[in-house]
Every structure is written in structure tokens, then in C-alpha cells.
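We close this part of the discussion by returning to an individual protein. The sequence in question and its C-alpha cells are set out directly beneath this paragraph:
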Amino acid sequence: MERSWRQGDVLPPDAAKLLGCPSVQERLLVVSHSCDLQRMVGSRLAIVMGHLGTPDTGKLGTKSIRWLQLPTSSNELVNYDIDTFHFVEASVLDSCVPWEAKHHREHATVIGRWIGQKYDRLALPDSVVNALRDSGVGDALEKALKRSSGGILDVRVYFDDKATPAVLTFLVIHDATGRAAAQDVCASVEKRVTIKDSDLEGRVVIAGAHPISEEELKYAQWRKTQPWRVEYLSLRETPPSEPPAR
């Protein structure tokens, strides 16, 4: 019998309670790929825990490595925590049906990108990290993202380490509603680069910050970029190589 489950579905309260989520304020989100759910057996079902929350633009899209805020089909907001990522027995899917009023199926692309970014990071030489810190460019970008409205989906970086000095280009990716917000973020970065050019000279070249819509970004361009995440910048920081054990 084919399972009706898809990535972005939420386990109903009874099933969630058996898995350690007794409160209806907590949610268990299925993050395994939809195609894998049909024949999955054993402890291979990937889930993350979330809690009901209030609007927070810093948790939208893939701005944060740790948090992802998603609206439900019943207009609630849930904050999911990547640190709760773990595996459970796939057989739980056969004992219940998805919690229809609480699903996030339409956000499957964002969910997949959010899960993937914890294990895919931009590793910059410490000299470049220090230049970004001393100039305040990194802080300017993070502050602009936090104050931005919804609509910004991701920040990608093209890093050319073969140039002397190395070259960084920022791409602020937005949806149909986020053009103005992306332009504001890019303007904040470029303003800081202009003010603090002396702190960057000879250490790294910031070639620009450019707003680009998700429709305009071609796959070939995307492959040449890496995700910008302030949590994993330095080569001294070791990212996880596999999902954490629970």
C-alpha cells in the first residue's frame, strides 16, 4: 500500500507523543525526501522538532542554519530547530496519517535547502575571515538580513581564491516579493565596503553584492557559489559530516 506521506508533512499528536512530543505546541516535521518515504524501513525516517512561535524574519527561508520558521496550512507559525534533527522508525508512518491542517508540503524546497546547508558550508581562509570582521562587512550583511522583511530566500557567495587578493561576490536571492529587501541588503554591504575599504585592501576584494530573483538564478551559476553562513566561516571550525546522533 502506497504511503500518503510527503516531505513537509507533520506527525499527528498521538504519534508525536509516542516519540517524545507530548505537547500540541510542539511539532514533528518529516524532512526525508518524498520519494524515499514510499519504501522506507528501519530507523531511517528523518524528523525535526518545532514549537509554535511568533513572526521572526531572521528565521525565514534559509537565513539561519539553526532555525526555520514555516507557516502551517491553518495559519500558525512553527519554529523548527536543526539541533533536534534525528532518525526514527519509518513504521510510525503506517500507524497514522499526516496532520492535514498543520502540513508544510508547499515549502518542501526550502526545507530541503535548510537541512542541506548544515552539512554544506563556505570555508574561508582565516585571513579573509579576519578582513571581513575588521571591516565590519560580515556584520553589516547579518544586520541587514535581520532587519529585512520576508522575501529573501538565501545568500550565496562566489569565492575566487585563485585571484590575488581573493575575490568575494555576494548574491542575495529573493522571491517575487523580496526585491526591495534584497536591494537594501546589497546597499548596506556595498556602503560598508566603501567606508572600510582600507581594512580590506590587499586582503580581499569585495566585487559587489547583487540582488537576484530565484527565477533569474541559473543552475550553472548556482553551482559556482556556496552558501554564506556566519556560523561556519573559518577553516578552523569543523562542520558536522553527518546528521547528529540522538
